[in-house]
Amino acid sequence: MKAQGNLGVAGFDIIESTKAELENLCPGIVSCADIVALAARDAVSLVRGPNYDVPTGRRDGRLSKKSLADKLPDVDDSIEVLRAKFRDKGLSDRDLVLLSGGAHTIGVAACFFMQKRLYNFTPGGGSDPAINPRFLPKLKAKCPISGDVNVRIPLDWGSHNVFDLHILKNIRDGNAVIASDARLYDDQSTRQILDSYITSTPSFNADFATAMVKMGTIGVKAGSQGEIRRVCTAVN
Ligand code: HEM
To answer: What is the CA 193 to chain-centroid distance, rounded?
Structure first.
């Protein structure tokens, strides 16, 4: 929760109250890791995305380190770095496109994450040339140079409350809001993957669900590893 890129993550109260209810009913059985994976599944369904099953049985880690969170993909990473960070976790270029596109079809981003892209992308204070010239003034108006960096704007401009393919078209057309989404169109491999989904909701939805399940298996602790936390914000 203290890592710079994750300061705005919300909803921990919902995870914690779910955990408290479960601990009342059946103490020490359901991990926080499973609650988070199931909450993501339900959130996707609630915004009219695909319904999918999530395997359970994860145990919680006994470590929580800011230094590890700092290694997560960064909004200003190049496409090469984004691909490498995903690859290091066993996730392909396809997973990168599906997970970024599928997740950022909903939600908002703080202007903080747009500062470099809008006002310091090139020497002399230029903007990211990948931004459509018709979109640039709109972004700048929402996130002015000395404005409040905590103001939040939709990640999927024009369709941020529903799970759909609109985000992919936005990225193709230079209307991505955050730089890491725009970078998906920089590289031939990720561009081709993204283009291939623009016309097919069924395959995007199904492949997104598969990628979510795959991501949910990374580094899973089972058996006698880790623990079942009593509260999700602290190790036992
Ligand atoms: C490719 C690497 C990624 C980068 C660099 C990235 C970066 C970001 C940033 C900067 C924000 C705005 C956060 C804020 O203002 O507090 C954001 C929002 C969000 N991201 Fe990502 N993200 C990535 C991949 C993912 C993935 C794989 C998922 C989940 C599958 C995801 C889910 C979300 C969601 C749901 C939001 C909206 C949060 C809200 O509305 O409060 N992101 N992301």
So the answer is: 18
